[in-house]
Amino acid sequence: MPARPRQDHLDTLAIALLLGCCLFWGAQQVLVKATVAEVAPVFQAFVRFAIATAVLAPWCLWRGVPLGTAREPQGAWRAGLLAGGLFAAEFACIYVGLQYTPASRLTVFLYSAPFWVALVLPRFHPAERLVGWQWLGLAGAFVGVALALGDGLLGGHAGPRAWLGDVLGLAAGLLWGLTTVVIRSTALQQVAPAKQLLYQVALSAAALPLVSLALGERWDWDFSAFAWASILAQSLIGAFASYLAWMWLLAHYPATKISVFVFLTPVFALLAGAAWLREPVTPGLLAALALVAAGIVLVNRRPRSLPVK
Known about the structure:
Keywords: Membrane, Transmembrane, Transmembrane helix. The chain is an all-alpha fold. It has helices at about 10-35, 40-60, 75-95, 105-110, 115-120, 130-150, 150-155, 160-185, 195-215, 225-250, 255-260, 265-275, 285-300. The chain has one domain. Helix content is about 70%, strand content about 0%.
């Protein structure tokens, strides 16, 4: 089968995959929150990425993707290690930050990632540059997220060290954005998406247990059926299937345009919380959904073609 050519806009397939990923990522936050009482946060992330690595490596072999570096472009393995290190550091910041600030507050800072991508990536790929109305859409989508998470942003439930969680959340957003930039601007972009993901989940599986031990988390493998189901869903659907789809999308579509879709994730998380935890759906949430939707439309609006002379 011939390789799929790179697209300059999002088609129906890309939009469907992005919506599916964001929907699950939003629901996954509720799963993580519901499982934290039983499984420590960073330890939970370690188990998730360890299972994902154990599944992804055979997948690569089955798909004919070599696990070694001999057939990779020069310098790709270094970029892969850098992307993997950034990815692991991002999740360490997220889970450590959650110890100091509410999840809703941290999420606002985490989803600054599309701004970092839009600021940095065009320096390497001018075609990824956003124009006036697209910047307006990006800002509108972020405002929508902030509105949806307004209680956390105002700090009404934040503790005295919430500033530390805020800084870690902002750092996680920066690390996520830089991971995307590394994938799109180095020789790593010539590596199969599954191998790109393997670098990230494998390094996370190696690094996160060290973070967990440093935090003094309890390692208890006597999980309930719900906890195992939650972790397996996070591993097989989240860290394997959805992240593999994300890597494939980065390889075939403009990163600046697909990144803005992640603003849907915290909104979907609130909707999942309303459905599962009976949290209220307020007029502010509905307004946030409208802002996020409008922002995505503006960012992905195709420029009008010039008339042919």
